[in-house]
Design goal:
Elements: E1 10-14, E2 21-25, H1 39-42, E3 47-52, H2 67-81, E4 86-91, H3 93-104, E5 109-115, H4 124-137, H5 140-150, H6 153-158, H7 160-171, H8 175-187, E6 201-206, H9 214-223, E7 227-232, H10 239-242, H11 244-257, H12 309-320, H13 322-330, H14 337-351, H15 359-373, H16 376-388, H17 393-407, H18 409-427
Parallel strand pairs: 2-3, 2-4, 4-5, 5-6, 6-7
Antiparallel strand pairs: 1-3
Length: about 425
């Protein structure tokens, strides 16, 4: 067990001190105990290192809002322990950490297993919506529905003790750290980088996983040059818990046979054998592209000043959500395209990205201005944006009460009706 500074992770070791290190990473909402059934067999060959995500399993609540941050904390923990090279198996969110290790720190990684993982987990909107629900209602709604996301129906019915364990695991997670982990998953996307993963990789998935299922697994295998796919029948998202023997056997076989040699100490290089030829996999169903807008005939930026369009598009998506922005861009034509370009570049790329106010404060200002102007349509989607930016329904109520004093009661009355409906839609847990 460990004392845990803010820049490291809570961890434990099992197995002989002189054995090579194998790391097991948990999924969002779980603890290192999700690997309990694998450890007795794995520790016969490896020194097994398990960690908890921030705020999970009693770990200190130091939120990490990106996969990069989580990876840095893991490496800081390992550096402090003198662990420089290791095998790594990660489930779901920890699978994203594994991909980050393979892409940014390949010299540390001997072998990789990605379990219930994906190069992109759903959509950013889905995870930010989950954050809104937790911020408003706490973790109980998420906890109660976790078994149906994590296990097959038959397993949940036959194993009530494990099902209750899963619920309690989520309930005891720190809400702020859970929300930060949702933000990390919302921003994670390595689809364009998979071909740069050079470490031997096992992609393991439950046949009945409805969260990150076989389709996502095949995308990983198609993109990673030296990857193999294992589909475990009769298992859902938490496949190490539901089918422990099958997962243990697959991990033992993978890490016993696919352990890449370390960099040669004198040259800093290593010989990597050519990846074996793999069968061509059917391409995943393409996602319909967002309609492209022809570049607007606007005045060029002054020399030396960066174009803010891409920054603005990123901020606009983070605040308003992909679905809203996609609709706005898809509906643009020769008449409205210039306006979409203008607000993306200047409103979102210039003003919303300025460092002087955080996004919570900017949402407060924006809501007040929209009430004053009577812009109820925009008030609706900026109320959604305020929730995504971290304002609670009670804080939005206070903003509207303040606006009633300075913008007028009739304007605030209309605003309360709009905001009330949006908050009801956004914060009602989906059963």
């Amino acid at each position: 067990m460990s004392e845990t500074p803010a820049n490291t992770l809570q961890y434990r070791f099992d197995g002989p001190e002189d054995a090579p290190v194998l790391i097991l990473g948990p999924s969002l909402g779980t603890t290192w105990h999700m690997w309990d059934r694998q450890v007795p067999e794995l520790m016969k060959q490896w020194r097994v290192f398990r960690f908890d995500l921030p705020g999970h399993g009693g770990a200190p609540a130091h939120p990490a809002g990106s996969v990069t941050d989580l990876t840095a904390r893991l490496l800081a923990t390992l550096d402090a322990l003198g662990v420089h090279r290791f095998g790594y198996a990660g489930c779901a969110l920890s699978g994203a950490v594994g991909a980050e290790l393979a892409l940014r720190h390949p010299e540390r990684l001997a072998s990789l297993a990605l379990i219930a993982a994906s190069p992109r987990f759903g959509t950013a909107d889905e995870f930010r919506q989950r954050g809104v629900i937790v911020r408003t209602n706490g973790l109980d709604p998420i906890a109660r529905t976790s078994p149906e996301r994590w296990f097959t129906g038959g397993f949940a019915a036959a194993q009530p003790a494990i099902t209750e364990w899963a619920v309690q695991m989520v309930r005891t997670t720190d809400p702020g750290c859970y929300i930060a982990s949702c933000e990390a998953l919302a921003a994670f996307d390595v689809r364009a980088e998979l071909s740069r993963i050079g470490v031997p990789t096992l992609v393991l998935v439950g046949s009945d996983d409805q969260v990150t299922g076989p389709a996502e697994a095949r995308t990983l295998v198609a993109g990673i040059p030296d990857a193999r796919l294992a589909v475990v029948p009769g298992a859902s998202h938490l496949v190490p818990v539901e089918q422990p023997a099958a997962v243990t056997d697959l991990l033992v076989r993978h890490f016993s046979t696919a352990w890449q040699p370390a960099f040669e100490s004198t040259t800093g290089q290593m010989a990597i054998p050519a990846a074996p030829v793999k069968p061509v996999l059917a391409a995943p169903t393409p996602v319909a592209p967002v309609a492209e807008i022809a570049p607007a005939a606007m005045q060029p930026e002054p020399a030396g000043r960066p174009d803010r369009y891409e920054t603005g598009l990123k901020v606009r998506r983070e605040v308003l959500g992909d679905a809203h922005v996609d609709r706005a861009l898809a509906s643009a034509d020769a008449f409205s395209g210039d306006f979409q370009e203008f607000i993306t570049r200047y409103a979102w790329g210039e003003i919303w990205d300025r460092p002087g106010l955080d996004r919570r404060a900017r949402s407060c200002v924006t809501l007040t201005a929209l009430v004053a102007g009577g812009h109820l349509d925009e008030l609706a989607f900026h109320t959604r944006a305020a929730l995504r930016n971290g304002l609670t329904p009670l804080e939005i109520k206070e903003v509207l009460l303040q606006a009633a004093v300075y913008c007028g009661v009739p304007a605030a009355n209309s605003a309360f009706k709009v905001a009330q409906q949006v908050i009801r839609e956004e914060t009602t847990p989906q059963e």
